[in-house]
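Need residues for this backbone.
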């Protein structure tokens, strides 16, 4: 099949699908196409609220700090032994 033939078939298929879509949407004016619905258009306050900031407890911060200090100490010890 040539490229022109393939393009012609694709155009026919696009036209067929467009007609099907138009037939389905006929009589449904309240339907919004998916590609135009964005969060910026939304008036729902739950969706436009900023995400809740996540915080670590002091105990978790101390565990992470201690683990980092242990890694650095081990690295320092191995590099000074060389």
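Answer:
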């Amino acid at each position: 099949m040539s490229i022109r033939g393939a393009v012609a078939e694709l155009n026919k298929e696009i036209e067929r699908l467009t007609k099907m879509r138009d037939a389905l949407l006929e009589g449904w004016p309240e339907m919004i196409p998916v590609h135009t619905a964005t969060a910026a258009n939304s008036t729902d306050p739950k969706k436009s609220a900023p995400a809740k900031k996540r915080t670590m407890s002091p105990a978790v911060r101390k565990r992470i700090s201690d683990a980092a200090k242990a890694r650095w100490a081990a690295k320092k010890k191995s590099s000074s032994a060389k």
